[in-house]
Amino acid sequence: VSHQLRDLGTARIHVNAAAAVRILERSREVLLTTPHTARQLCMVEYQGIMAELVKSWREARESFLSTIERSIPKLEEIFLRAHRGRCVNEESGAAIILGACCAVLKKRTALSWFSRSIAAAHRAGQLEFLWKAHLDLAQFCLTQEQKLWEGAGLHAQEAQRLIDLDLSRRRPEERSLRE
Fold first, then answer.
1. Which one, of 35, 37, 29, lies nearest residue 9 by Cα?
2. What percent of the chain clears pLDDT 70, i.e. is strictly above it?
């Protein structure tokens, strides 16, 4: 039941973030009453935080920064559990969201979180997280002092190479524009 609730909650994040938060919290509650893996717990908690961030952005932008601040320690815990449990997909996902949160707050720790996401995504062969982390790192470097701008170009080029590789592996209908 928990994984079905998690899937439903995840699917609702961009449609109705408030409902997604409630569904994902219920999924977590059900999961904690049953035998579960570290990966399952990381997934439901990670998706719950994503839903909270989207909800906060849409409903109360003035409190969005405080929602990000509250989310960082939770994401750090998810990252550590995922790392210890060798759940590299969740590890990379938590790191990329941590990087984005830190970047929004203008914290230099964004650099290390994006780098950790790149390392985990590389270990997992997860092209989508890999190119996203390179692209996010490039964008963050451009907001920093000039000495990081060259690195921004290198990460942007790597992101482009990985996007091209990812697209080349997909069927033509998966690469066409959706309406």
1. 29
2. 97
At 178, the pLDDT band (50, 70, 90 cuts) reads low
* Cα dihedral 11→15→17→18 (10° resolution): -110
Q: If you average pLDDT over residues 130-155, what whole number do you get?
A: 87
Residue whose tokens read 């990670």: 46
C-alpha 135, offset from chain centre = 13
What string of DSSP letters covers the chain?
-HHHHHHHHHHHTTT-HHHHHHHHHHHHHHHHTS---HHHHHHHHHHHHHHHHHHHHHH-GGGHHHHHHHHHHHHHHHHHHHHHTT-HHHHHHHHHHHHHHHHHTT-THHHHHHHHHHHHHHHHT-HHHHHHHHHHHHHHHHTS-GGGHHHHHHHHHHHHHHHHHHHHTS-HHHHSPP-
Cα–chain center distance at 161: 21
Give the least confident one: 35-44, 66-75, 165-174. 165-174
Q: What is the pLDDT of residues 115-128, one digit of tens each?
A: 999 999 999 888 88
Give the per-residue pLDDT at 62: 73
Alpha-carbon distance of 45 to 21, in angstroms, equals 10
